[in-house]
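Work Package 4 report. The design task specified in the project plan requires that, given a folded chain encoded as structure tokens, an amino acid be chosen for each position. We show below one input record used in the internal validation round.
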């Protein structure tokens, strides 16, 4: 939301381009830097990707006109530049670039390549762009540095690290990286930074969340779950239903059946059972289908949330939500001892059956369940058509757990995947396989996409969209990608690699953040840390107290909390004392909790946070 509002505020697009032979080819660092600069209104793409996100064109060439545009925005002078008329002697500057070139020329930040030409479409080299940056920071090429080797000074300032020496090729990705690095660099002979200058020019109402709002006014529920496909399951006064994104609660069925059927498991109500679970149990599917319980029939069926019509008549003892056109059910007329499950489609047709399911729904076209082969039961992965794409292990130790829907586990082979797992790199452990194939990564077709480096024993989950993961060798961790090792196995402890950032430790005591390419962030040590969130802010702890650092290692919000969670939707949950209530802060560190008393919370989903309060469960959203 913050990005959309900044885009409305700063409507002129940055067109910073580049030439072939790049130094950084759309790397993780370049992408992260571009997104951070985009949040600040400095770096704006040209058009959007198929998923609606900005197309930053990080591998393309950078022109002089585009570089000057970025320079003016870095100085926080865009508003001044576009609000005035500028007289320039150059005949090769297009209308969109005149305000930026005019401001830079009038303030001595740039000159032309001749008396009448600015050289708008000429490619910018590394030293030329670094010269622009140094001028933005108050340095002059006459006395502080040589314009044809500007990297000498930027290396000293920490903006570069020797990678641009005598390099002429320069890309949008390079511009994003060095521009982002410069944000926390002080002006010459000052303590103020470019980040502070940019922050001073932004309207506070668009740069950070002002407050949070309770969805649906004062609606509290006895139990609730996160949003999925525009609806969130909730229970109020014994009635199960769904909350819409505008706060309307639609009652769907009652839970009278539960007390008599399940009291033997020591759960006396559906709310008690669901409250003991860590994962959502109910959801509306992509096309509006949800499971409902018919007390008269004593069975589960499916309805359409939009029309209220019955899609599948109540005939099931258990009915999981539909996902990707499939649902897992157990028939009501089955023998009480029969735990066999069927996968059905939205027409109610039986597609295949399985003894146990390890997951409650399809995800990325796959389901973890059991299959029989040669009289032996195996833990395996099914594709959307019910075909087994990989056998993980002989299912010798399956145990059914107490849950509203059946679930199970197998102590042998397994698949490493959850909502954050990259579908192109699903880690699988194959019990009984040769040592070289004991653990590897596959895609949703079962094709091997990555194997562990030589000497590695196992791997960790591969995060969605990441280009690396952790492997383990001799009890320690290292980073690798599909082509081999990135780092040796030197870490005794690591946190999951999320948004290209992980906290690692070589002694289990002192932690420090690294990027997906193995490079270290900053020079500080921490006692712990969390995942990278909004504005590329990372929760980190020093001497037992949490604060937030940037992806350059700079402290953005001081270490003053007993606990801190990653920012999402512009909101961060913190605790001022270990046993205290949760407090909400925005990315500026301002408290925005209002009158809410927050006992617990669940991560944002579709723009809404689920929180628990003394009054019950409710959903909140951010107001910018």
């Amino acid at each position: 939301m913050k990005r959309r509002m900044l885009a409305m505020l700063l409507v002129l697009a940055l067109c910073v381009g580049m030439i072939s032979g790049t130094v950084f080819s759309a790397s993780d660092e370049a992408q992260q830097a571009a997104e951070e600069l985009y949040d600040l209104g400095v770096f704006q793409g040209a058009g959007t990707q198929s998923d609606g996100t900005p197309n930053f064109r990080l591998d393309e060439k950078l022109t002089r006109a585009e570089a000057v545009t970025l320079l003016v925005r870095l100085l926080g002078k865009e508003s001044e530049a576009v609000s005035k008329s500028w007289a320039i002697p150059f005949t090769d500057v297009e209308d969109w670039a005149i305000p930026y070139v005019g401001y830079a020329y009038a303030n001595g930040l740039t000159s032309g390549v001749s008396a009448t030409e600015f050289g708008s479409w000429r490619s910018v080299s590394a030293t030329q762009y670094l010269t622009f940056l140094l001028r933005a920071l108050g340095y002059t090429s006459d006395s502080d540095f040589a314009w044809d080797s500007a990297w000498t000074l930027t290396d000293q300032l920490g903006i570069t690290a020797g990678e641009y020496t005598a390099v002429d090729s320069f890309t949008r990705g390079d511009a994003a990286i060095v521009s982002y690095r410069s944000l926390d660099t002080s002006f010459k002979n000052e303590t103020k930074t470019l980040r502070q200058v940019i922050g001073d020019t932004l309207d506070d109402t668009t740069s950070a969340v002002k407050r949070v709002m309770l969805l649906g006014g004062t609606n509290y529920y006895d139990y609730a779950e996160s949003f999925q496909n525009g609806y969130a399951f909730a229970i109020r006064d014994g009635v199960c239903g769904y909350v819409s994104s505008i706060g309307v609660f639609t009652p769907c069925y009652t839970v009278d059946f539960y007390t008599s059927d399940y009291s033997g498991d020591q759960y006396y109500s559906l709310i008690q059972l669901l409250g003991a679970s860590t994962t959502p149990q109910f959801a509306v599917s992509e096309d509006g289908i949800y499971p409902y319980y018919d007390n008269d029939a004593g069975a589960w069926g499916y309805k359409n949330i939009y029309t209220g019509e019955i899609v599948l008549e109540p005939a099931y003892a258990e009915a999981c939500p539909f996902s990707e056109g499939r649902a897992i059910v157990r028939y009501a007329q089955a023998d009480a001892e029969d735990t066999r499950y069927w996968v059905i489609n939205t027409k109610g047709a039986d597609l295949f059956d399985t003894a146990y399911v390890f997951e409650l729904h399809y995800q990325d076209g796959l389901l973890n369940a059991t299959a029989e082969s040669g009289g032996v039961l195996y833990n395996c992965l099914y594709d959307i058509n019910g075909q087994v794409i990989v056998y993980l292990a002989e299912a010798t130790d399956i145990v059914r757990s107490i849950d509203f829907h059946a679930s199970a586990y197998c102590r042998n082979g397994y698949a490493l995947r959850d909502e954050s797992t990259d579908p192109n790199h699903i880690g699988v452990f194959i019990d009984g396989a040769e040592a070289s194939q004991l653990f590897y990564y596959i895609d949703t077709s079962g094709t091997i996409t990555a194997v562990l480096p030589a000497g590695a024993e196992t791997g960790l989950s591969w995060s969605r969209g990441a280009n690396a993961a952790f492997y383990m060798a001799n009890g320690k961790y290292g980073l690798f990608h599909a082509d081999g090792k990135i780092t040796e196995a030197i870490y005794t402890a690591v946190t999951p690699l999320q948004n290209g950032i992980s906290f690692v430790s070589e002694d289990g005591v002192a932690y420090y953040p690294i990027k997906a390419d193995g490079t270290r962030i900053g020079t500080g040590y921490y006692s712990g840390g969390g995942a990278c969130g909004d504005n590329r802010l990372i929760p980190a702890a020093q001497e037992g107290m949490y604060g937030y650092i940037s992806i350059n290692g700079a402290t953005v919000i001081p270490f003053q909390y007993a606990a801190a969670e990653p920012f999402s939707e512009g909101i961060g949950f913190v605790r001022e004392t270990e046993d205290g209530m949760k407090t909400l802060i925005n990315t500026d560190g301002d408290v925005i909790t209002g009158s809410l008393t927050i006992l617990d919370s669940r991560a944002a989903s579709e723009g809404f946070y689920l929180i628990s309060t003394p009054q019950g469960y409710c959903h909140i959203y951010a107001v910018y």
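DSSP finds twelve helices and 37 strands in the chain. Validation will be extended to a larger panel in the next phase.
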